[in-house]
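# step 3/5: fold
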Amino acid sequence: MRTLVATTLANAKGKDIYCAARKVSEQQISIIRNTSRQELEELGFTFIKLLSLDYPNVRGYAIFFEGHLDEMGRILKNNIK
C-alpha cells in the first residue's frame, strides 16, 4: 500500500513548501522536513516528481510512504533522532 504523506513545491527562493496530507501530524511533517531525502528513501518513502504542462518552472514532489500511516509514525519515531 502506498500512502500520500505530503506534496512540496519550491518557492522563488528554492525553499520547499510542504502541504501535508490531512492525517499527517505537524510533528511528523517537521521530522520529514528536517530529514534528508536519502534517509527518508531508506526508511520507505518515495518521491515522485511533479510537473506542470502549463508552467514549465514549477518544481515539486509528491511524497509517499510505502505502507500504512501508523507504520510511518512508528518508523519516524524509532529511526529519526
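# step 4/5: annotate
The longest helix spans residues 69-79.
# step 5/5: archive (pending)
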